[in-house]
Amino acid sequence: MASTITVFDHLKIPLEKILEATNNFDDKNVIGEGGFGKVYKGKLLDYGILKNISARRLDRKHGQGDVEFWTEISALSVLNCPPHIVKMIGFCDENDEKIIITHYDIKGSLSMFLSDPTTFSLQDRFSACYYIASAINFIYGSEGSAFSFIHRNINSSTILLDENWKAKLSGFEFSIRSSSLARKNFNIHSEVIGTQGYIDPTYLKTGSVTHKSDVYSLGVVLFEILCGRHAYNPNEQDDKKFLAPLAKYHYEKGTLQDIIHPELWDQVASDSYAKMELEKISKIAYSCLNKERAQRPDMHEVVYELEKQVRLSFHIGSFIFSFIIVSYTSSSVHK
Question: Domain Protein kinase spans what residues (predicted)?
């Protein structure tokens, strides 16, 4: 572990600066809590620049410790450049405190906005689907890249939204790294780790995890976004607690609108283009949830299909905007 610490020495942040940034870990600054512990927002003076940060403070009562802490630091140090991965600022390993500091994405987690169709609009949701898939595709690695990761904990709480509603992937404490050359055949047996409602059923049954396990989790997240529902709701009836089987059932029956948030469905029903996008993206989400791993799509295929939808949406929006401007200009000239 000493050699690991030396490698990351340049990322160390004194505890004193983090205490100042979070007002001594004031509960008023708590913005979330996960398997790692509480997450605090704050303002950190870093090389003369005041930055909005989130500080994830390890709480050992959750059963995690040094391994998960260093796993996340290692992963984020490798992935610390693309636009759809949360950016690490540094960490603190001092006085038995283990804290990971990342840029704070102003909106918060995707989970906070799933059931808010007014604030988190339909078009923002469609775009978020693409950004999330792009992030997963990036960590999957490509030919010639130095890494390939299985995330193992993709869910709506580890996906953050910035001020422009662009999604970023975080929560790499459970990730597993391999070489990019081995990524297609990378299969490891381990203790089942993840979040209820998102875990690949094959992983649950066998303890075997692959990149296609993350594809399954993505399918759940896509349906969360489209339906405005959470992956698991303990207050629902037994057959409606878990979104994945519920969404699959209604997709197969052609009754997906029955489980979509009513206000979201109103937006879809009044816009033929939105309806078309919903159909396309729900088809992708359904394929990700295939029981057979081999039948789930590869991430580059998912990104390609979602990118087509985003581009189509952009062109349609630009056309409508241009039409309105031309119509307005024309009417003004003839007055």
Answer: 25-312
